Amino acid sequence: MASPTSINPQQPPKLRSRAPLYLILAMCLAPVIFALLAYYVPALGLRPDGSINYGTLVNPQRPAPSADILPLTTLDGQPFDLNSLHGKWLLVSADDGACPESCVKKLFVLRNSHASQGKEVERLARIWFVTDNATIDPTILDAYKGTNMLRVDPIKLAAYLAPQASAAEREAALKAPMWIIDPLGNLMMKYPADADPVSVRDDIRKLLRNSRIG
User: Fold this and answer.
1) Which of 24, 29, 70, 207 is most deeply packed, by most CB within 10 A?
2) Predicted confidence (pLDDT) per residue in 60-94, tens digit
3) Domains of the chain with bracketed CATH
């Protein structure tokens, strides 16, 4: 018979350290947390360069002037209040009524960017500020039906689009860029006339996706 002193009582198993488990969990969650912070807190500077807006932000944003400061009329001469479109994202271009090829391209880019937004299409409206009294080609009227075509004094429009700018810069502001006015009525982004149509479309899609207004 074995001696009582030779019997070793069963020792309880040692508790395993949970540190490796926590480390693995942290490694799995880190990319998700990083992505969320980069997306929702852009001020942290975590976004890669490729995720910034394609368009150029207007800084500071400029509220749309009242009808008294920037009077507008439809092509048939009826007054038009820009505030009637309040609550929508406005895709804007400006040019003279003859609408050369560069003008047609801007209208095309904005129309297609608008039409390609799927279920979000009702959140947008298009504006062409016509800066003279020239007769508009019926072909253009038909091709860009649905665009709000509004006649405007070019000097007053330039004062809104490019305040504190030289005469040459104001002239360029009337013909070169395309603009976006947000649903609160603020001029907030512009694109060059030679902008890539796909990049403009995707930029607008990103604005709609991330915005809780309009």
Assistant:
1) 207
2) 889 989 999 999 999 999 999 998 999 999 999 99
3) 17-46 (no CATH), 54-210 (3.40.30.10)
